Amino acid sequence: MPSRTTVLVIAGSVLALAIACALSLMVGARTVPPGTAWQALVAYDPTLADHAVVHSRLQRTLAGLAVGIALALAGAGLQGMTRNPLADPGILGLNSGAAAAVALGVYLLGLGSVTQFMVAGFLGAAVAAVIVYAIASASRSGATPVTLAIAGAAVTAGLGSVVNGLVILDQGALDRMRAWQVGTLGARDLGDLARVAPFLVAGVLVVLGSARALNALALGDDAATGLGVHVGRVRTVLGIGIVLLVGSAVSLAGPVGFLGLVVPHAVRLLAGSDHRRLLPISLIVGPAVLLLADVAGRVVAPPAEVQVGVMTALLGVPVFLVLLRTRKRVAL
Amino acid sequence: MSARRRLRVPLALALVVAGLVVVRVLVGTPMVYADLAVRAVLGEQIPGVSFIVMDDRLPAAVVGVLGGAALGLSGTVFQTMLRNPLASPDVIGVTLGSSAAAVAGMALVDAQGLALFWWTLLGGLLTALLVLWIAQAHRRGGHGAGGAGVVDDRFVLVGIGVAAALLALVQYLLSRMETKKAGDTMHWLVGSLSGATWPRVAVLAGALVVLVPVLAALVGRLRILQLGDDTAASLGLPVPATRIALVLVGVLLSSFTVAVAGPLAFVAFLAGPIARLLAGRPSFVLAALLGAVLVLAADVAGQNLFGRVEMPAGVITGALGAPFLLWMLMRSSTTGRGR
C-alpha cells in the first residue's frame, strides 16, 4: 500500500524529471524560449535554427534519460545485491572495465560501430565485475564495502594504464575512442539509442523484477534462503541485468561515475529502503539528476561545456565522503 | 636476520640499480658501445654518441634513480606514518593532487618545466591535508578507534573519493585545452623519463640532498609514532608537529619527482611493501633502492619492448602495480591490518 509520503515523493520526482527534460531542451549555448521549444517538438520545421537546436538537444535528452535510468538502477541493484552502501558502477571498476574493453577492441580488432563498442563494453564490465568481486571475496575479511572499493580502485587504475599504453601505441585508436574518455551525452544519435534500447530494457526489467528478492537479500543470505530465495541464482540474474545496464550506459555516454551511488541513497532517504519503492523511484530520479547535471555543465563555464561525467563526479564525491562517515550505520 | 644479510640485500639492490643505469645508457636504438659511452661521459665529443649519451639517456637514467628513490621514500613515509601498507601517496590521492594542480598550471598560465614544481607542491600539500583532515574528522565521528597498532582504511577510502574528484577536474581541464596541448598533457600525465634534462636532474638532486637528512632525522620519531598516538604522546613526542613534518617531507619528495618526471603510478606504493618482504621490516634504504629499480626497469622495458614506440615508464608501473595492489588486498586480513 503506497503511503502518502511515497505518493508525494513519486509526484515530486516526476515533476523534477519533467523540469529537467524541459531545461535540457531549452538551455545551452543558444537558449530557446519554452514556446519555441514546444513548437519544435509538435511542429518541427527544419529551416528554423531554433528548431534544429531543440532537435539535437532532444537526442541528447533521450540519451540522458536512458543513461540516467541505467546507472541509477544499476547502482541500486549493486548496493542491494552486495549489501554495500558504497557500490557504484564507477567505484567498483565496471565503468573502467567497459572502457578498457572498448579500447582493446579498437586496438586489436579495429572495432568502430556503436554495436561493437556495446558488445565489448558488456564483456569488459562483466569481466571487471567478476575480478573485483572475486578478489574482494578472496581477502580474509571477505567482500566488504572497503575491500570492494579498494579492489575497484586498483582495477580502475591498472586498466587506466593499459588504456594509456594502447593510446600511445596507436594514435588512431585514440581518435576513434576519444568520445569514450569522458562521460558525455552529446555524442550519440537516435540510431545508436535504438540499437542500445533492447539491452537497456532487458536490464531494467531484470532489476525491477528482482525487488522482492533484493528485499529478502537485505536480511542476509541465510534469512533470504529461509524465505525461499535462491541466493546464488538471484545474484547471477541480477549481475547479468546490472552488466546489461552498465554496458548500455557506457556505450551511450562513456564512463559516468557516482550517479549510481548518489541516486539510490537520496531515494532511500526520502522513500525508505523497500526495493519495491526504491527501484522505481530511482528510475525516475536518476535521469532527472543526470539531465540537471548535464544542463548545469552547459551553463557553468560558457562558452565551453563541462562534460556530464565531470559534473556527476563533483556532485558524487562529497556524497561518497559523507557515506564513509556513516557507513557503519548504513552497512548491513 | 644476520648482519651479513642486512648488508647483502642493499648492496645487491645497489648493484641492480647500477646495472640498470648502464643498460639504460647503452641499450636502445641505436646501441652505444660501452667504450664510446665511457669516453663521452668523460667529456670527449664523439659525433652521434655524445648527444645520445650525455643529453638524452644519462639524464633520463639519473632522473630514474633519483625520482624512483624519492618516490620510494615518500611512499614509505606515508605507509609507516598512517600504519597502512595501502596508504601510499599515489593510492590516497596525493600524487593525483600534484598532477591535477600541474595540469591546472599548464591550462591556466602555460606553466612548464621546473615552474611545474610549485604547482605540484601546492596540489600535493593541499590534497594531503584535505585527505588527512577528512579522515581525522571521520575518526572523531566515532568510528575506527585509534591506539596502538590499530590501523584502518579510512585514509584509503577518503583518498579514493578525493582522487575521483581530482580526476574529474583533470578531465575537465583536458577537455578545455586545444588538441595538441591536450595530447602533450596526457602524455605528461602518464609519467616518463624522456623529458629529463641536466637542470632538472640538478633540482631533483638538490631536493634529495636537503630532504634525505631531514627524513633521516625524523625516522626515530616515526618509529615512536608507530607505537600509536597515545603512547607516542606519553613518551613526550609532539605528535601533531611530527606528523606535519613527516607529511611535508613526504609530499616534497613526491612533488619534486612529479614535477620532473610526471606521476609514475604505483612506484611509491610498491617500493615500501616489497622492501618489507625482502628485509622482514620496513626499511627506508631498501625502499629508496627499490623505487629506483622499479622506475629504471619499467623505463628500460618501455624503451625496448614495444618496437619503435617508446612506452613511458608510468604506463608499465601502473599496469604492473595494480595487480600487486590486488594481491596485497587478498593476502591482508583486513585492508589495513595486513602484515
Structural class of chain A: mainly alpha
The CATH topology of chain B is ABC transporter involved in vitamin B12 uptake, BtuC
Number of domains of chain A: 1
Strand count of chain B:
0
Organism (chain A): Brachybacterium rhamnosum
Protein name (chain A): FecCD family ABC transporter permease
Family (chain A): Belongs to the binding-protein-dependent transport system permease family. FecCD subfamily.
InterPro entries (chain A): ABC_BtuC-like, ABC_transptr_permease_BtuC
Topology (SSEs and partners):
The complex is a heterodimer of chains A (332) and B (339).
Chain A: H1 4-26, H2 34-42, H3 49-81, H4 94-109, H5 114-138, H6 145-169, H7 171-176, H8 178-181, H9 190-209, H10 211-217, H11 221-226, H12 231-253, H13 259-271, H14 275-299, H15 308-330
Helix pairs in contact in A: 1-3, 1-14, 2-3, 3-9, 3-12, 3-13, 3-14, 4-5, 4-6, 4-12, 5-6, 5-12, 9-12, 13-14, 14-15
Chain B: H1 3-26, H2 34-41, H3 50-81, H4 94-109, H5 116-140, H6 154-176, H7 179-190, H8 198-225, H9 229-234, H10 239-261, H11 267-279, H12 284-304, H13 313-331
Transmembrane segments (chain A): 6-29, 61-78, 90-110, 117-136, 148-169, 196-218, 238-266, 306-324
Membrane topology (chain A): Multi-pass membrane protein
InterPro entries (chain A): ABC_BtuC-like (IPR037294), ABC_transptr_permease_BtuC (IPR000522)
